[in-house]
Give the backbone structure.
Amino acid sequence: MTDTPRTESRLSAQGVTLAYGDARVVHEVSLEIPPGAITAIVGPNGCGKSTLLRALARLHAPKSGTVLLDGHDIHERSTKDVARELGILPQSPVAPGGITVRDLVGRGRTPHLKALRPWSEEDTIAVNEALKATGLTGLAERPVDALSGGQRQRAWIALALAQRTELLLLDEPTTFLDIAHQYEVLDLVHGLAAEGRTIVVVLHDLAQAARYADHLVLMSAGLILARGEPNDVLTAERVSAAFGLPVTVVPDPVTGTPLIVPTGAPPGRSAVPARASGMKENTL
Amino acid sequence: MTTLLPDAPPTPGAKLTQPRRRLGYGTAVTLVIAALALVLVIVSLATGTVAVSLFDTLRAAIGIDTGTGADFIVGQLRAPRIYTAALVGALLATSGALMQSIARNPLASPDLLGVSAGAAAGAVLCIYVARTTSSLALAPFAVIGALAAATLVIVLGSQGRLEPFRMIIAGIGVNFVATSVITLTLTKIPQDVVPQAYAWIVGSTNARTWEHVAMGAASCAVIVPLAIFMVRRLRVLEMGDELAAGLGLRPGQLRFVALAAAAVAAGLAAALVGPIAFIALVAPAIARRITRSPGITVVSAALIGVILTVASDLAARELIDSVQLPVGLYTSLIGGPYLIYLIIRSKDAFR
């Protein structure tokens, strides 16, 4: 795991409270997004992780507190202005019927297009690069409907890449994908961060988050329970408290990152003591 | 940028072309539709019980004094009526295209969302109060009625944020209310105005004048370019509010402008010829399908609207001797079955 880079954070939340109507879902949360790294936000359903991500992308106005982008309140800047700095892939965008991959990715150029200069060579180059980075060049003229789930998710990520922003926010990009496609998408995200992009990603799978994140944020009930390196954040105590599920944490046999295992065996099956499998015991 | 994933092998024959390659196909189809629309207008101008030479017809139709019977038959009777029908077709189709885009639903159209009925209610109230069926006098009332209905649909159809399905249910409700207002007003209208009011309610291109053409042309000159200007943004909005906002658009503002433009277009169309059913619903659906457009398309929809309305008008004039049926009857006869055909043929047609 790399050290947190010393350079200044471009995106941060400062005492942000987020609500839907009167129902508060995030309570006075502060968070700095380290540049050039992957920040993964994890936590149980309804803990406010997606809402926090949306607030960081200017899609949700805070009830109090501010989100700062390059030192300025993100809500004081125009949505188009923000879209040139920060890309967000929401949870379930809709691909128009019959649209080709290239057309879909091209729509990522929206914040850069002007009324009198609808499309330029620069836009074509950005689209071609986004297609190449996501391995979709050969599928560019295919209809999106004809792609596999993993390819389709790559196409959406390509759309966000065509936006050419250094900051990229992804809301559960692995949902609805099988395990191979999940890792395919995560490898892609990892590569993007390796190129210097700043990534914030909401993930469900804790082991995946631990494997890929440089900076892990564990949320529960609208608060940040812990943040930092995955090894420090994902302790059995914290995960058990956050999810209300007794767990033990063992090292991932491949990466050594934390692997979360529930301690309760299914009814009718006896739990094998962790020691018997030769792993370090770390039970609550 | 480095390649992070092995590239899929290129499809044989695939070229690295401009992202807008697809528009090439759509543009070609649009040009064909435009040619068809032009031919249809000429055929309609030249068709009638009084035979006029094609040369005189064309000259009279563009306002050249031929010194023959064509000046009256074509210049005063056929041309204004046909041009009005064409312009109304374009207005209705544009209105429908905008509504289908913002509702993300092929069933959204001013007729089904109660906006046309709202326009008709406004116009009938004007007929009741002012005892006139002049399009110019009806226009402001029809537009206000349409905007009021659209506002109701938006207010009832949203809870904090607009929900397309809720909006359609609200539209059905507004449609019923507006229809009741029309019926109620008709029962109160003095007997001598009822025939005029009723003729208007049915929707007719009969006895249109150059004033109607001027009004229709002015309406189109504002609405259609505005809609074309919004196409690129609306196509992004169709992919979801959050994605659109993330790409720098303002979904609420965009939807407001598009819906207002759609309501005004439907109101003006209603003021010109009364409520004409189905054009706004069917024309954009046909246009999207035949141009294979991934999202809203305005120019081809407007042209399909022209074709359908002019063809319906021609049928209303000529199909049954001695009886001039209302044009709205034929728009339904053409539009209804085609829509059913589309639904049966492909469940993806409207996605």
